[in-house]
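Just scan my protein:

. . .
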Amino acid sequence: MESFSALNDALPGLFRSILLSAENTIITEEYKDISCNDMHIIEAIGIGEPKNMSTVANALMITISTLTTGISALVKKGYVVKTKSDTDRRVVYLKLTERGVAAYKHHEEFHIAMTDEVTKELTDEEIEVLVKALKRISGYFQLRR
């Protein structure tokens, strides 16, 4: 029961710490004009092929109307461009600008540094257990969205 109590205390603290660390690390002087939520939209768009609004909204587990608000701000700030489909003008595709790609890579560096720091003193077996536990936690939240 002591382990349950420790975990019950640790999980909310962990989530808050990750969010605070992300905010303090990702939103630098260069990216002070965007929020962590904006950065997650940038991450969901990615640096590959353009993605439609539905794909990005689903990845973020938000509505298209909520995404539209965020995208409008990111377009205005020069991080994202919107284009309409040639075959169906109702479909809007999102792609990162050069500035958006730079922000994406900056965010990616944070994730890599965080993962490196968390795993640097773990054995391969401990990393496997951690991954398994985190996948279960993620699955729990996926079911509750």
Summary: The longest strand covers residues 80-84. The chain has a mean pLDDT of 93. The chain is about 70% helix and 10% strand. Residues 2-26 form the longest helix (25 residues).
